[in-house]
Amino acid sequence: MYKDLSGKTVIITGAATGLGKACALRFGSEGANVVINFHSEKQENVVQEMVNEIKDLGGVAIGVRGDVTQEEDIKALVEEAVDSFGQLDVMINNAGIENEVPSHELTLDDWNKVISTNLTGQFLGCRESIAYFLKNEIQGSIINMSSVHEIIPWPHFVHYAASKGGIKLMTQTLALEYAPKKIRINSIAPGAINTPINAEKFKDEKKKKGVIDLIPMGYIGKPEEIAAAAAWLASSEASYVTGLTLIADGGMTLYSGFQAGKG
């Protein structure tokens, strides 16, 4: 637990499911004010259940529907957080999508959809929160959700890998630019995590084993393990950390083929 997170206001985009949901619940358990951004009207009931669960955990939460690819929606998201809780302290740009397509068949629409959600959406979240922090002289924290695929090439997912590679240098560039203002900007690069986006693949035991074989620690990660990393990065325990990509992957990026002295 990080006592300094109690009472802080945290926006989490794409927070109705997966890593975003785990982050929302973790920050709620820290006593934070959690702004749960979600995209679809179908998610409203889930978000209301999360609001109630966070209240039971000792935090406070609201749900705010919005599309991270739209400037006005991101501006409204920040305004709603400030109107509801008085101040914004932490921005977690988590919303992201992926789909598998051989690169020579990838349409421009599919490319643009992934890039606009994963990269442009995170830029807009960074820009609006930084502008707010500067205007109000707040030493805020921003956490961008990347992936091991900012490092590991991923055939059939060129748009996703490109978006995550972009997040890496966007995070580092913004961290360097705003470090003098004590605004900390970091990212997390998860490996294989047991989230709804991966659920269908992991139902197939052969595919699941194929993934586990790539992980030196020998298991698929839990969303709560990524949420724990986010809580640390947002806390004062990480006060001297900026421009970092925190890789949480069970060792996937360590070239697992060499693990048993191979190569």
From TrEMBL:
Top-level EC class: oxidoreductase
Enzyme Commission number(s): 1.1.1.47
Entry's Gene Ontology molecular function annotations: glucose 1-dehydrogenase [NAD(P)+] activity
Highest rank taxon of the organism: Bacteria
Classification via SUPFAM superfamilies: NAD(P)-binding Rossmann-fold domains (SSF51735)
Keyword annotations: Oxidoreductase
Family assignment from sequence similarity: Belongs to the short-chain dehydrogenases/reductases (SDR) family.
The protein's name: Glucose-1-dehydrogenase
Species in which this protein is naturally found: Fictibacillus iocasae
Lineage: Bacteria, Bacillati, Bacillota, Bacilli, Bacillales
